[in-house]
Amino acid sequence: MFSKILIANRGEIAIRVIRACKEMGIASVAVFSEADRESLHVSLADESYCIGGPLSKDSYLNKEAVISAAMASKAEAIHPGYGFLSENAEFAKMCSDNNIVFIGPKAETISQMGDKDMARKTMREAGVPVIPGCDLVENVEHAKQEAEKIGYPLLIKARSGGGGRGIRHVSSQSELEQAFNTATAEAAAAFGDAEVYMEKFLFPVKHIEMQLLADNLGNVVCLGERDCSTQRKNQKLIEESPAAIMSDETRKEMIDVSIKAGKAVGYRGAGTIEYLYDNDGNFYFMEMNTRLQVEHPVTEMVTLIDLVKWQIRIASGTELAFTQEEIKPKGYAIECRINAEDPYQDFRPSGGKIEMLHVPNGPWVRFDSAIYQGYTIPPFYDSMIGKLIVYSKTRDEAIRKMKAALCELIIEGVTHTAGFQAELLGAEEFVDSTYTTDFMGKYL
């Protein structure tokens, strides 16, 4: 087991990893930007190093600075959290080249699954259902030819990256050229890669993801699914596990297919396979995230398996201590992402100093966050300031518990989304679990 781990991230996920390290008796090292000197993860870690200016490119995305901090602190491993360098194959290789363990999959796996076009081909060869579409398109004329075969409506999607960027919906041929040019330009700016492919736009659908854990000995298990269909601009707002509308037969089929996919790519660590799920129970591979997900706590709640600790154990060479047959999720868990935004003003970002903070508690209520009373939210990073997670034996109880917890959460000084989340939980489509990825658009 490692004696010291550097956390190459900030905010709540950095604290989440530090907490796991403390419980495992492992020393933790924090890195921070100039804007994060007063951040909680800096004071909670055993050591901390400033690695650059406020902008992410100068600090949390500065691969050389992170590696230098790891070497200076003599950290044996780096946990990347999510976002930033977590799916950067070059960074994973740099870790290996400097005899530092990257807590995640191999660099080759990150490259293979980060290339969405290659990932589709790999899954297709492994027998995983994929969305009807085409491989990379070279130019507008090529896109028009392939679009006629696929049929409208369709999606143009960036080969690289994620987070909903480089994606454009196309309803007809008249929209194709502008959408193609916009998608390729956005992909080039965001990921340094302008290549795109196209898929049939499936509608209405749910966004379902399967959580995998895999060790270095070829053992792969699936910890069940999460329903992540409550989204705005491809960004998730509420996640729950299990997906209430899914049949046991379909669930087993998706689990079996996901395990097959993990083995096909020689996966290692924690990873998530994302699917589109239609009203007829059909499911289609969308992409694989080769990292820890923001919404991992709901899986932890229903399985009682600590995903972060198992990431660390697997990276140190430990074999999985449970088989697929032993994984039996129980109850229902819901997570609400709390963002510093004004949902009634087109989700305008809200910064400033937190004047008062009261965190909800009680049985099976969890608040993952890095904020504290007196903390000033910096304007340079993602607007998420916390994740509220609850667990109950039934879904109805979980919804009521979450509403109560949202009412109890008090954050004064900045505008946030807790009240709006409570409204969403009361919507008829959410209550009966028929909501799909267009739920937010219709609700707004």
Molecular structure report:
Strand 11 and strand 12 (235-241) form a beta hairpin. It is built from 15 helices and 23 strands. The chain has three domains: 4-103, Rossmann fold; 132-200, Dna Ligase, domain 1, CATH 3.30.1490.20; 205-443, 2-Layer Sandwich (D-amino Acid Aminotransferase, Chain A, domain 1), CATH 3.30.470. It is globular, with a radius of gyration of 21 Å. The strands form six sheets. An eight-stranded antiparallel sheet has the order 14-13-10-11-12-15-22-20. The mean pLDDT is 96. It is an alpha+beta fold and 444 residues long. The longest helix has 19 residues, at 173-191. 34% of the residues lie in helices and 28% in strands. Helix 7 (140-150) packs across helix 8 and helix 12 (395-408) packs antiparallel against helix 13 (418-425). It has helices spanning 11-24, 40-44, 63-73, 89-97, 107-114, 116-125, 140-150, 173-191, 248-264, 296-303, 307-315, 395-408, 418-425, 428-431, 439-443; strands at 4-7, 27-33, 47-52, 77-79, 101-102, 133-137, 154-158, 167-170, 196-200, 205-214, 220-232, 235-241, 269-278, 283-289, 332-339, 341-342, 348-349, 352-353, 356-358, 365-369, 376-377, 384-392, 410-412.
